[in-house]
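I hope you will forgive my troubling you with a question about protein structure. The record follows directly beneath this note:
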Amino acid sequence: MLRQMCRRGRLLAAIKDSTQEVDSKSPVVAAMQILSPPGSVDTDLANLQQLPPAEGTAFNGSGVVLADSMYELILEYWNNTYSPSYIHKSDLTFDLLNSGVKVLPSRAVQLTHFTHKIRLFSPFKKHHGNSSISFRHPSTGQKDMGFIRSIWTQVLEGQKRTFVFVQPHTDTDPVDAAKMPYLTHPRFKCTVKYTNPRHPKSELIVEPRHIISHVAYLPCPQGTFDIQKAITIFVDSLHRNRD
């Protein structure tokens, strides 16, 4: 089954790549150019609309109070990524009221989905498949995979920002990794992770611009490949929004 899925993915990828050939006369290529046109709308910083201050304040006020862990994660992400920096709401004292410091809003609007590269993305509780993504780590630029846990949006510096909370997958240990049959078949682009790790990775924040695509996956029971833990196989060769 996985072999057939991977072959289909490579075929679709080859067809999509051929749409970049201007001189191609193939009717299949012509159809693909209609179904998947170049220059699809993307979610990036250049497309963020500047909102009036009153509108931004009203938008944030319409949301719900963020949990402390989420609030602190957004604060850390923003201060490590953008400027000007914000301070924690609890650090605002009377003497700072007129000093020009910026306080991160305590409220945000929760989203059930968003569209990126003409694809729909949702939290895991809403839709398992739409929550499985590959992405570039905001700090390192390294490619990783995970499930979307929640999606929040705030207006900061006059622009509506979408913060995607992602739970990265946990790698198998070296002993279990050596049992994987995909090590000798790298073109399948299959990766195996623990389904219910004892020590899961910490959640992190990405924005839509960091997301590469969806990732197909198959949960497998304990004993698969002689691994005594439940695992999940992720197939990163079936999507069209590739690097």
